[in-house]
Amino acid sequence: VLRADGTPFPGLYAAGEAAGFGGGGVHGYRSLEGTFLGGCLFSGRQVGRALG
């Protein structure tokens, strides 16, 4: 999660749809159902790894 000046908030993460996957985010509103699941799983895994 970024501040208004573009710097990250230490220890604050966004995953899944909050990170822009699904609902039109990265893939657009015309994406096929399920195409956003990979991004959700990947971002969730990265958050889990960062939290230890």
Automatic annotation (TrEMBL):
Q: Name one GO molecular function term.
A: oxidoreductase activity, acting on the CH-CH group of donors
Arranged from A to Z, the UniProt key words for this protein are:
Flavoprotein, Oxidoreductase
**What is the source species?**
uncultured Actinomycetospora sp
The entry's protein name is Fumarate/succinate/L-aspartate dehydrogenases
Q: Which Pfam families match?
A: FAD_binding_2
Q: Where is the FAD-dependent oxidoreductase 2 FAD-binding domain?
A: 1-37
Write down the Gene3D superfamilies for this protein, in alphabetical order: FAD/NAD(P)-binding domain
Q: What is the lineage of its organism?
A: Bacteria, Bacillati, Actinomycetota, Actinomycetes, Pseudonocardiales
